[in-house]
Design a protein that fits this description.
alpha/beta, 8 helices, single chain, three-stranded antiparallel beta sheet, five-stranded parallel beta sheet, globular
């Protein structure tokens, strides 16, 4: 089963990718993880991606597509895969279709969460300056306020997690991604799912939607 997960920042795409990958026995492929893996491994494509990332520039679609093409060609993807973070617009969706050699996607899962819930999720996150461990002031608070459970380093709010930044990211997402939703809806592939509740509840909803409930 070939699935793409789409949704705004904080909607839980990464968490669902991991949970669904386990349930469906297919790899979870995050475009961000692919880029980081490629830059660490020093492959030719990774070296090119690193040049852009070191300059603070977006990695071109063509490069990301080459990384995805290589990843989905591996033997563990024969039974399918879960894409997370790509595509983000209709042009990328068309290019992805070419990369998949006509095999295409079976489902595009749009995880929908109310904006205020996303703001609360992301603005409540705290990151350890020492080891990078993540906490949440409501859902996963540290044992000692402002300090990491593991290394006792200070916890801080990343710029990306500040409320004003989160709201701006959501506006950008809507502008960029609404056309993608229309593209996949026209293709009969879009499946909308309620992203509220526990991760396990959302996973159950998705499995029911794609006909793999278990």
């Amino acid at each position: 089963m070939r699935i793409a997960l789409v949704g705004p920042p904080g909607s839980g795409k990464g968490t669902q990718g991991e949970l669904l990958g386990h349930k469906l026995s297919v790899p979870h492929i995050s475009s961000g993880d692919l880029l980081r893996e490629a830059t660490r491994s020093g492959t030719p494509w990774g070296s090119k991606a690193k040049d852009y990332m070191d300059r603070g520039q977006l990695v071109p679609d063509e490069l990301v597509l080459e990384l995805i093409k290589e990843r989905v060609s591996r033997s563990d993807c024969r039974g399918g895969f879960l894409l997370d973070g790509f595509p983000r617009n209709p042009d990328q969706a068309l290019a992805l279709g070419r990369v998949l050699n006509g095999a295409g996607l079976d489902h595009v899962i749009a995880i929908e969460v109310a904006e205020q819930s996303i703001v609360e999720r992301l603005s409540g996150r705290r990151t350890c300056r020492g080891c990078g461990r993540l906490y949440h002031v409501t859902f996963n608070p540290p044992r000692r306020a402002g300090r990491c459970n593991v290394c006792s380093s200070e916890l801080y709010v990343r710029d990306d997690d500040r409320e004003d930044t989160v709201r701006e990211r959501l506006q950008v997402y809507r502008r960029q991604t609404e056309p993608l939703m229309g593209f996949y809806a026209d293709a009969g592939l879009l499946r909308r799912v309620d992203g509220s509740g526990s991760p396990e509840q959302v996973t159950t909803r998705i499995l029911a939607i794609v006909g793999a409930g278990r």
